[in-house]
Predict the 3D structure of the following.
Amino acid sequence: MPKVFNPLSVFRAKREEPLEVEKGLTPTNGVQPDFRQQPIAELFWAADFGPVRTIIDGAKTRPTGFIPTVKGGFRTMPWDSQLEERAMQLADISSRVYFLLAQPHRMEIKVRGNRGSPLTYFPDLLVKVDPSLVEDLLSGARFIDAIRTPAADRLPPREWETVILEIKADVDPRDGKPRYREKLEFAKEVYQRRGWHFLELRESAHLKSKFVKTARFLDWRKQVALDEFDLQTCRAAFAGGSVTTLEHLERSLGGGNFGRVKAFGLHYRQIISIDLSGGIAEGATVYLMRGDAQ
């Protein structure tokens, strides 16, 4: 059974103050009025805190599937469109993304005039990120560019920002439906009242560039096995400092494709952070990340 998220915590709401009643007057029916705020939205989470729905049910006529993730705790995540798969590949590769979860919860929005049924909304992706990534996106940076920026520090969980991502094609048949747009606006307000961010990512604006092919190439290799020897070799490559080059690190880890795969395995696990703003380049700057690995 899914766990019900406390709706009052969604709004961080306090009980409303009771209405002022003249002294000496009491309700005629003898029943005290209930002035408590009634919830208008609830979030339902999976009991195992994984995806709240798995998507693949045999009834879909479009591509669906699963993708293994590092930032998702090495769990596979479901995707309902290839754009969602791409967004998760990009989030997984970013040094500024600490956690990701597909189909994180179900939001039920209580409305009038819907035959007593709530509106239901399933967000595509929840990510917990470095605040600098949020600042870049709110300043107009493309998601596919922002995720390539390196990070020198791993922040503690208390400093992470939560972002809900709605992944969309350039043309979505629901865009012209006022009720659907209103539902998204209401969902955005709910998240904002929790102190979360809500962003829509369109394909051309945020998920399209030559780096897509690079991300897919790296995604196939991210689950490489690493051991304590690899970690010690990696740290030794920095010679007591915190910055080196990708070429030097790869050579220290064994060279060739073997060394490259090991280097990017360390990158995905946020032991190091590779500057991918110029793609995979031998002279790319590599940072030994400070802070505890998650």
